[in-house]
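User: What would this chain look like folded?
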Amino acid sequence: MKQHYTDEKAGIHYTLQGDYYLPDLALPTEEQQTIGIWGQRHARYLKQNHKILYMNLFTSGKLNNHLADVEEQAQKMFSRLINQMAEHEGVTEQLKAENQMEWVGQIKTFGFAQKSKL
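Assistant: Here's the prediction, encoded as structure tokens.
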């Protein structure tokens, strides 16, 4: 038996594995992007709760782009939330310039270990 076989009608290439010809399948190449915590959590959510959507994105090569978009949106929302909380609590650049220790203490009360853009 031949090691490789091509079905001319369908245009599919097969390779002999034991006694069976299996199709040579490959996922489309996908641009690698850094996915942060929010993107990873969304991927886990999709994998557990929306398996079909997850597999469709994965097999079409669009999963990383989708997760990178979710990550970017979540980071923007997080920054907006921090800025709104700082404004509400009176944590300003002026306070930072006048009393840095007080500013740090108030920022820490937000409970976030992320960098603030204040």
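Strands lie at 4-7, 12-17, 20-23. If you want, I can go into more detail on any region.
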